[in-house]
């Protein structure tokens, strides 16, 4: 372990606070209930779909909706916006390709329709009139293009399949308490390569590393009542010294001059700070909340957030519009209304950065042990089966020894990020890619990525932004200056919206203006990988030339040697356990050095010995004729039996899988030059059988063995 890389202590669950408990009791019941996988850990957010901007009353519209395919695209001509659809029933928010939706059809269906009633009871549970008279209709995500009607009146449209949108539907709702008909049309063209689609396959059947499509509604839908002038967006940014936090507030409409914004911060029931500011007429304002106790340098770390200590600061923000006089001299709700808007939020006090060849957390070097997360479930696809599944996913990643996850080609549900915030897991946020370079694709990508960064920039768990992966959508970036310009523009757009986090312009290779250098390396020759990253001259040759995938690491001049270098994809070992092997199989031990057994640090002077051991291990595997032939035969059989699955290499059994994992991780852990890694991947996903756990989240070998491998000491 390097002396300048923090190796964190074992994580501890954050305890429930009295404030959290009271908040949970205040919000429970307003949403219809949210499930969690671990009932012993209360959910202070009350299951709210947007946990960093939540009001005490809201109404979930998840559940049964009417549903229909529109193969002839005749729904508009047949006036479905006024009449709705009811030939089938779908369970929202599960996409129709998934089993839990109740539909489970994966063919091409470019246009789908939904409908359901909005009742007077729904509006009451949403908080009307106690919380406000305006009704906001929230959609977490609808893939790809959505049109929304109430009683035949078009109330809004949105494009972008991975980000939220909100509609004020107040004027479209009938008076007198009658039900209103809510209708949604979703259009998702399977063959439109210019749509940001991520891992969704454009071919009829999933192939290689691409999965079933996600059409239509796939994140929560809910109603909230708000005052006429309300808070639309919050963004929390800690100062570099973590002795203050900047709050940016965006409102639904301009607030009148003289309105006030108040922010109150508390921790474990104790007040930390309160600030009130009077506003000019504006829709966006910033205020700085000083944390006086953080000036005390000997105990300022007590409030800091990290994976080992995921401390969250509770917040309440209140917008109080100024009163406006009406004709006749009376005072009532004027241009801005008089009812205050009160929202609950939270933040984590932490900083991230990339300097001196290290990733920094709270100003200190922090070694990143990451795993690739596809965020895909067999029965519900991109939508999690329930909120407990999201919580369990975060807990599983930590149980296996990782402190970070790279969410791959998906903008994750805010509830997943909430659990990462609460349980303590670093997250790399990544944009799903389009697959062509056109003006339309550029416009779509820029708009949707900007919305994703705005939505998620307050989550303390999110520590790195990745707008492009492996030149997807800019396949000729190395040769075409206009594609390099897009890479730079997306990275700079990200920094303009959020200057507080590192940005990787193109994960894997062909970097233009990254704050960290990431490399994808699936080389099965473990000795070659060991030498590539442990020897400074060989690593320099990689950074200055072609990477292990045959792509240039940078296309924008020489690599800045002060930037951290990480291998952000490696492994990908295919293994399908038998019934006796899954969920805790494997030897439970295997060969390991005495240093690992004792938990000791490997010193720089021992790096050569580590490489030598790796060489001997590889040589032994090749020269042990009896064992080698058995392994080869088993591998051949596995190849024959698993033709329908995919991976970079194949393990013949649990012992072989464990041995391959030890060599793959050990090859990177032997390097004193890397700042971290990200293994491919957490779960088996459809035809990809290269997970550490299967699609049902059962470890393929004992979880404690995987954890031991992942957390092995790093060469200094």
Describe the protein in words.
It is a single chain. The chain is α+β, with helices and mostly antiparallel strands. The chain is 22% helix and 25% strand. It has 14 helices and 33 strands. It has a 7-stranded parallel beta sheet. Strand 22 and strand 23 form a beta hairpin. Helix 6 runs parallel beside helix 7 (481-497) and helix 13 (654-669) runs parallel beside helix 14 (703-710). The termini are close together.
Search tags:
six-stranded antiparallel beta sheet, seven-stranded parallel beta sheet, alpha+beta
The count of strands amounts to: 33
Shape: globular
Gyration radius over CA: 26 Å
Give the N-to-C terminal Cα separation: 5 Å
Main beta-sheet strand count, sense and barrel state = 7 strands, parallel
Can you count the helices? 14
**Class derived from helix and strand content:** alpha+beta
The portion of residues assigned to helices is 10-25%
Q: How much strand content do the residues show?
A: 15-25%
The overall pLDDT, averaged over residues, is 86
| Uncertain regions spanning at least 5 consecutive residues | 7-40, 324-336, 582-612, 614-641
Strand order of the largest sheet: 28-27-26-25-33-30-29
What are the SSEs and their pairings?
Layout: H1 18-27, E1 59-60, E2 63-69, H2 80-83, E3 88-92, E4 111-118, H3 120-125, E5 134-139, E6 142-143, E7 145-150, E8 153-159, E9 165-168, E10 180-187, E11 216-217, E12 221-226, E13 231-238, E14 244-255, E15 260-267, E16 270-278, E17 282-290, E18 313-320, E19 324-325, E20 331-332, E21 341-347, E22 352-355, E23 358-361, E24 364-365, E25 368-373, H4 387-399, E26 404-407, H5 414-423, E27 426-430, H6 439-456, E28 462-466, H7 481-497, E29 517-520, H8 526-534, H9 536-544, E30 565-571, E31 573-574, H10 594-598, H11 607-623, H12 625-641, E32 649-650, H13 654-669, E33 676-680, H14 703-710
Parallel strand pairs: 25-26, 25-33, 26-27, 27-28, 29-30, 30-33, 31-32
Antiparallel strand pairs: 1-12, 2-3, 2-4, 4-10, 5-9, 5-12, 6-11, 7-8, 7-10, 13-14, 14-17, 15-16, 15-18, 18-21, 19-20, 22-23, 23-24
Helix pairs in contact: 4-5, 6-7, 8-9, 8-11, 8-13, 13-14
């Amino acid at each position: 372990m390097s002396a300048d890389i923090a190796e964190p202590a074992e994580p501890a669950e954050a305890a429930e606070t009295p404030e959290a408990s009271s908040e949970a009791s205040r919000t429970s019941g307003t949403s219809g209930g949210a499930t969690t996988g671990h009932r012993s850990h209360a959910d202070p957010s009350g299951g709210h779909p947007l946990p960093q901007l939540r009001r005490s009353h809201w109404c979930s519209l998840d559940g049964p909706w009417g549903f229909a395919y529109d193969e002839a695209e005749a729904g508009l001509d047949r006036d479905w916006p006024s009449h709705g659809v009811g030939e089938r029933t779908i369970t929202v928010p599960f996409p129709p390709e998934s089993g839990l939706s109740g539909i489970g059809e994966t063919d091409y269906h470019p246009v789908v329709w939904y409908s359901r009633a909005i009742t007077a009871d729904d509006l009451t549970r949403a908080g009307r009139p106690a919380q406000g008279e305006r009704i906001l209709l929230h959609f977490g995500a609808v893939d790809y293009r959505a049109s929304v009607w109430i009683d035949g009146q078009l109330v809004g449209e949105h494009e972008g399949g991975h980000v939220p949108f909100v509609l004020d539907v107040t004027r479209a709702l009938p008076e007198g308490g009658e039900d209103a008909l809510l209708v949604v049309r979703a259009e998702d063209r399977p063959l439109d390569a210019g749509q940001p689609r991520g891992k969704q396959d454009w071919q009829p059947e999933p192939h290689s590393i691409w999965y079933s499509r996600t059409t239509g509604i796939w994140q929560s839908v809910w109603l909230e009542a708000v005052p006429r002038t309300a808070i639309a967006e919050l963004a929390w940014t800690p100062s570099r010294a973590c002795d203050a936090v900047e709050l940016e507030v965006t409102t639904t409409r301009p607030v009148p001059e003289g309105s006030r914004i108040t922010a109150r911060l508390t921790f474990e029931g104790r007040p930390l700070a309160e600030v009130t500011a009077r506003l000019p007429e504006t829709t966006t304002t910033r205020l700085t909340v000083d944390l006086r106790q953080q000036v005390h340098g000997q105990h300022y770390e007590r409030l800091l957030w990290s994976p080992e200590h995921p401390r969250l600061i509770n917040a309440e923000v209140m917008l109080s519009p100024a009163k406006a006089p009406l004709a006749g001299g009376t005072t009532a709700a004027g241009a801005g209304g008089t009812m205050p808007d009160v929202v609950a939020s939270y933040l984590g006090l932490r900083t991230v950065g990339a300097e001196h060849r290290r990733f920094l957390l709270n100003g200190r070097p922090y070694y990143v042990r990451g795993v690739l997360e596809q965020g895909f479930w067999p029965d519900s696809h991109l939508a999690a089966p329930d909120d407990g599944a999201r919580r369990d996913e975060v807990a599983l990643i930590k149980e296996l020894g990782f402190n970070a996850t790279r969410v791959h080609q998906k903008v994750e549900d805010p509830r997943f990020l909430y659990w990462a915030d609460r349980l303590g897991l670093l997250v790399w946020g990544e944009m799903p890619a389009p697959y062509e370079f056109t003006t339309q694709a550029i416009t779509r990508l820029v708009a949707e990525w900007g919305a994703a960064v705005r939505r998620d920039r307050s989550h303390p768990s999110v520590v790195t932004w990745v707008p492009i992966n492996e030149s997807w959508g800019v396949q000729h970036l190395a040769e075409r200056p206009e594609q390099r310009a897009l890479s730079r523009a997306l990275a700079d757009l990200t920094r303009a919206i959020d200057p507080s986090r590192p940005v990787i312009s193109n994960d894997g290779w062909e970097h233009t203006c990254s704050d960290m250098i990431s490399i994808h390396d699936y080389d099965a020759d473990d000795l070659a990988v060991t030498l590539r990253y442990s020897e400074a001259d060989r690593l320099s040759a990689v950074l200055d030339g072609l990477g292990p995938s045959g792509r240039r690491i940078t296309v924008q001049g020489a690599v800045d040697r002060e930037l951290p270098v990480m291998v952000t994809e490696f492994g990908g070992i295919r293994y399908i356990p038998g019934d006796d092997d899954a969920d805790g199989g494997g030897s439970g031990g295997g060969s390991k050095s005495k240093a690992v057994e004792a938990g000791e640090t490997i010193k720089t002077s021992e790096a050569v010995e580590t490489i030598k051991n790796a060489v001997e291990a590889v040589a032994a595997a090749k020269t042990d004729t009896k064992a080698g032939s058995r392994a080869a035969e088993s591998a051949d059989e596995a190849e024959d039996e698993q033709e329908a699955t995919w991976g970079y290499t194949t393990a013949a059994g649990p012992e072989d899988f464990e041995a391959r994992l030890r060599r793959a991780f050990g090859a990177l852990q032997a390097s004193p030059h890397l700042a971290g890694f990200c293994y491919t991947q957490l779960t088996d996903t459809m035809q990809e059988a290269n997970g550490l756990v299967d699609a049902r989240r059962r470890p393929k070998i004992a979880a404690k063995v995987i954890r031991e491998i992942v957390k092995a000491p790093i060469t200094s």
